[in-house]
Write a structure and sequence with these properties.
disordered N terminus, six-stranded mixed beta sheet, single chain, Nucleotidyltransferase, domain 5, 39% helix
Amino acid sequence: MSNVLDEVLEGFEPSPQLLSVMARSHPPVLLALDIGTSGVRAALFDERGSEVAGQSIRVDSHSSLAEFGAIDADVLLEHVAETLDTLFAGFYQSDARIELIAVSCFWHSLLGVDAAHRATTPLFGWSDRRAAQAARQLRAEYDEVKTHARTGCRFHPSYWPARLLRLRAEEPATFKSTRLWLSFAEYLTLHFFGETAASVSMASGTGLMDQRTCEWDQELVDAVGVDVAQLPEIASDHQTFHKLSSSYAQRWPQLSEARIFPAIADGAANNIGSGCSTREKAALMIGTSGAMRVLFQGEPPDRIPPELWCYRADRKRVVIGGALSDGGSLYRWIRESMLSGEDSEWIEDELDRLDADAHGLTVLPFWTGERSTGWNPDARGAISGITLQTHPIEILRAGMEAVAYRFALIAQALEPLAPGASVMVAGHALISSPAWVQILADVLGRRLNVSERAEASTFGAALLALEAAGKISGIEDFSVPVEAVFEPDMTRHTRYQVGLERQQRMYERVFSETQ
């Protein structure tokens, strides 16, 4: 009978009217926002955690925070608002009211606001490197091993301690006029709901929070010259904000009665949305930048490997991993600089044709600086070995292999914390290039599973909010189907070990004087 029914339904596509009837049986209760450094996505979910078909939108930004390091926070705020305008313009139930709002937002941003809630600084993203000298000063004056163990963060320009120290020294008038220091996530809720409490997840990525107590680290707060009252309150896991400002409530009547959860960080949301919420599964993603992370219930390890960071998804879950400043951004730079006339299909075919580490090139992939694994604030990109016979496609392949080598070092540091974990890969830049996925599989010497879910951070934010609201029993109950599997070629893996060693020798020669 099942086979007959399958034959009858084969090729059947429900009409918009039928979709509407089906959707009303499980109406949307939650709006999920994913605010990235280069775009915003909004989607609607029902109370079971299923995305409502046809009720999502993604709008790319004209100015990438990752690319420019700092942007106008109000421009990004309006970009988020316009994304919601577009979503609700096509909302099939215009009279419906959304109950919950969940937000995933990029980690590590910083801006100041005055008593009138006006921005006193640009919005600084993780790629802003102006605080490099301040990071060196912190390393000289404080025990970085101990602060890393407490806060989960190294002294680095990406984090708040170095940034606040730089602003105090170089922009004293701005520093003095600032009433509150926030990430963009809190700036959004300040303007939408009049609240500034930060989730444990967002606070954990600042470098100013004690990962074990989930409170601001008083030693570092004093070191950078701010008062705890100038930092957002750290919210409880079930805390929500209820009163959408009148102007926005008129703009989006569907949200006039909604409760919003303080935003969680995009990296934590990405793990949850990829089905990687235990030590048995690691998430590896390459978008503009890149990261490899393990998320699990429990406390931070007694010793955090120096190559890695340790943040939180909430008060009962930690997320540990490493982040690369260059991923899709490096791919795009090489392609636009050297292969601008070639289409994607030709590039993929040529990448596949090239053998592993066969180009004679060594690349240090630090166009945007280095985070994991060396945390060198002075690191810059380099290409060695170019000759008159070098082709642009070989430079692109060498750059992709170089990024894979840095992931190999992160995976090595993660292994004791999540031994034998399977790896789920995601991220637009990576999934768009099967050749790159295969390079990663070969470099790591591990099977890679490609996630079927393209927008994992949106889904992850939705699941965590539904769990907190008691709508679902737990995020661990949700699995994500695998779309494709890439097996490693161990002959290439052996060849890549030589390339990795060569890259490390070059790294040590070039940066030995700046460590």
